[in-house]
Amino acid sequence: MRVLSVTSECAPLVKTGGLADVAGALPAALAREGVEMRTILPGYPAIMARLGETKVVLEDAGLFGGPVRALSTQLAGLDLYVVDAPHLYDRPGGIYLRPEGGDWWDNPERFAALSWVAARMAAEGADGWRPHVLHCHDWQGGFAPLYARAMGAGAGSVMTIHNMAFHGPAPADRRGTLRLPGWSWHPDGVEFYGHISALKAGLMYADRITTVSPSYARELMTRDFGMGLDGVMRARRDAVSGILNGIDTDVWNPATDPAIETFEAPTGKAAARAALVEEFGLPQGDGPIAVVISRLTAQKGLDLLLQALPRFAGQGGRVVLLGSGDRGLEDGWRAAAHHLPGVAAHIGYDEAMSHRLIAGGDAVLVPSRFEPCGLTQLYGLRYGAVPVVARTGGLADTVIDANDAALKAGVATGLQFAPVTAEALSAALDRLLELHRDSEIWAQICRNAMAHPVDWGTSAAAYAALYKGIASDT
Ligand code: ADP
Ligand code: GLC
Predict the structure, then answer these.
(1) Is pLDDT at 158 greater than 70 in this prediction?
(2) DSSP string across 155-222
(3) For residue 48, what are the contacts with CB-CB under 8 A and spacing of at least 6?
(4) What is the CATH number of the domain that holds 320?
(5) Measured between alpha carbons, how far is 444 from 141 in angstroms, rounded to an integer?
């Protein structure tokens, strides 16, 4: 079974969020299921600079304004195809944004090129390798199932939604430039209220739609969460499934993690916690240390946590946040760290620090308004940093709330709260303080958390089964 993963991010090469971790981990996880997955990525400068030996496997003399080549190579343990298209990718700034902020005006074409090349590989093969299935991630891979169909590629296709909030819109008059077939321009095709939507193209033309948790799959069929595409999700209900993300248990392994010196959980957490207290100058005390590692956007609910901080810190709770994003939220967290003893914030992006936080934290907080899956609560489970999460999406599917029944049955792994309001979050933090004071119950919750499976095992098997159901006999 040959599968081509079509993605705009892939750890450890290029990452802005959890999509990169998932795309980076899938090939190894699927290899264990007998699936040969290769990955196609845009040739961003950071990737081009790291290329060693490559082979040109496909060429296009003129694609969206310039020549394009697909290069095959191996990098960071991945079998890669890199789309070399300097006119689209050789730019300063982030992978989606201009250095001065805001999307590149031609983002639709930049990622349509990725999808076009992937579709051609499915149609023609490249250097003798032709995928049975295209596995497309988020709007950046959304046109691939449509292009593949237009080319008569015959390959099966899976569209995975990591975040329905991003549609990849383009003005209607770009449909010629984007090489969208005329038959796709209608409300049951790529049209979304008079615009082109790359994500909708994927949802309409892929054989199967997945998202990264069963709860988010259900939520996406509702108005509150569907971001205008809930009708499409309902119409395609039979093609939709939710497959939970796993984490890379080698990268996130408390026994071997190079970011921390000693870790014998749950009691041995003491050393990592003490290191955290020192690193962030936190007050000494018996109260729990709760950590946050997150993009700072409205999705993540960290404005609600700001509101809940004074009460939590007033009762001996301590909080360390690592994150970056919205200016307003960055400023809010800087101010909270300045004014409230027991609150620290590092505004920035720092992988090693994220490991130290998860290792030293007693709890990890994820108060998201919506969360397709979420990864930091999974890291928390593995390292005995008890997750306190909003009851939504993948958060609801991965954490067992410490309610009375779960405590009696001895199965609780964390805390859930709903609705996603500052009041409900505050109440959850009160519960956290109370549970943490009872060392016996707390130790049991930590043990349960650490025993909860967070690897890719069952989910990789679920993807493999899905591919089998739609693979072409290429
Ligand atoms: P999302 O993809 O919506 O951002 P996830 O929880 O799925 O949310 O994935 C976020 C990933 O990015 C995790 O691996 C998390 O550790 C990492 N991350 C987010 N912000 C930072 C940061 N400031 N420093 C280091 N890692 C971060
Ligand atoms: C998205 C979601 C997050 C998910 C990640 C990987 O960015 O916001 O919940 O874990 O993709 O699937």
Answers:
(1) yes
(2) -EEEEEES-TT---EEEGGGTTTTT--GGG-STTTTEETTEEEHHHHHHHH-SEEEESSHHHHHHTTS
(3) 82, 84, 89, 90
(4) 3.40.50.2000
(5) 43
User: Which band of pLDDT confidence, cut at 50, 70 and 90, is reported for residue 93?
Assistant: confident
Q: Are residues 447 and 462 in the same domain?
A: no
What is this structure's pTM?
0.96
Q: What average pLDDT does the segment 131-146 reach?
A: 98
- Domain for residue 256, yes or no? no
pLDDT digits (tens, 9 = 90+) for 194-235: 999 999 999 999 999 999 999 999 999 999 999 999 999 999
Q: How many domains does the chain have?
A: 2
Tokens of 119: 């579709």
Q: How far is the CA of 17 from the centre of ligand 2 (A)?
A: 7
Sign of CA dihedral 444, 445, 450, 453: positive
pLDDT at 473 over 70: no
Strand partners, 389: 366, 416
Please state the atom number of ligand 1 nearest to the C-alpha of residue 324: 23
- Indicate whether 421 belongs to any domain: yes
Between strands 169-171 and 195-197, the pairing is antiparallel
342 and 207: one domain?
no
262 domain residue, yes or no: no
Supply the residue whose CA is at minimum distance from atom 1 of ligand 2: 162
- My answer on whether 121 and 200 are in the same domain is yes
Asked if 441 and 462 sit in the same domain, the reply is: no
- Identify the pLDDT of residue 267: 52
Cα 292 to averaged position of ligand 1 atoms, centre (Å): 10
Specify if 375 maps to a domain.
yes
* CA of 409 relative to ligand 1 center, distance in Å: 32
235 and 365 in a common domain: no
Mean pLDDT for the chain?
A: 96
DSSP track, 355-414: HHHHHH-SEEEE--S--SS-SHHHHHHHHT-EEEEESSHHHHHH--B--HHHHHHT---B
Q: Is the pLDDT of residue 126 over 80?
A: yes
Tens of pLDDT, residue by residue over 49-65, are 999 999 999 999 999 99
226 and 278 assigned to the same domain:
no
pLDDT digits (tens, 9 = 90+) for 268-286: 688 899 999 999 999 999 9
Domain containing 179: what range?
2-246+457-470
Question: Ligand 1 atom closest to Cα of 371?
Answer: 3
How many residues in total does the chain contain? Answer: 474
Percent of the chain surpassing pLDDT 70 = 98
**pLDDT value of residue 271:** 86
